[in-house]
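SEQUENCE-TO-STRUCTURE ENTRY
===========================

Subject: a protein chain together with a token-level encoding of how that chain folds.

Sequence line: the amino acid chain in single-letter code, read from start to end.

Question of interest: how does this chain fold, as expressed in backbone structure tokens?
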Amino acid sequence: MFLGLFVGLSLQNMISGMENTALLDRLIMFLGEVAILVPPLFILSQRKVALLDVLPLQKVSPVTVGMSVLFISGVIGLVSVFEVLILPYFPIPDFLQQMDETLFDGGVLANVILISAAVLVAPIVEEFLFRGLLQQSLFYHFGSVIPAMVIPTIIFALFHVGYLFYFPAMVELIALGLLLAWIMAKTGNILIPVLTHALFNFSAFSGLFLGLDEETASLADLGWTWIIVSSILFIVGWIYFKSMKTVVCDEVYLIPLPHDVEQ
């Protein structure tokens, strides 16, 4: 994971001095996300373990899929409420504001690559690592869902280190990580956190792309209908998933050690 991140950052630094690097920056971001998967996939191949054998893919009903969409929609709405309430006390740092303002300045192709990396590649890669391999391995090691949820969440937040210097973003990252871990524990299917993560990222990017953040400075600007509907969706989703039992996917926890693999 960290090797892949190092490769992506190194490639970005290599082209930072070149002119007209917007498209290359987006390509490197895309490839950097993909590169993160190389080390764990290599380890699995060395231990002769198929990828599908370690991914939790328990059957889920269409109702669960629909409720996950409604739940994350409520979460997205309440996150916007949180941001409106806390923004007067925690102004956005200049480096984050500048990054948001220049995020979509690279042209159509660069924007397509950027959104693809954030909405498709990042959720798949990060959920595979944090809620797939890491959360399942920690559950097997500790026999408890608490450390299996908390430890990947901490690493997930550190993985987005740039946002940790802004308190509201840090709170959102930790809350999102715990939420994804909780949904993973309840459904036993990695595709559900991938879906919710993708929807969350899409909402953030669509808001920046459309300039919606500039139009909401107070709860009144946000709209009470938005707040009420978001709260209802969140509560309904919370009750639904809370009523589900934690899924134990015994068959995906045990990854053999190197000396246990037949040569």
In short: The chain has two domains: 1-52, 60-249. Confidence is low (pLDDT under 50) at residues 251-263. The radius of gyration is 19 Å.
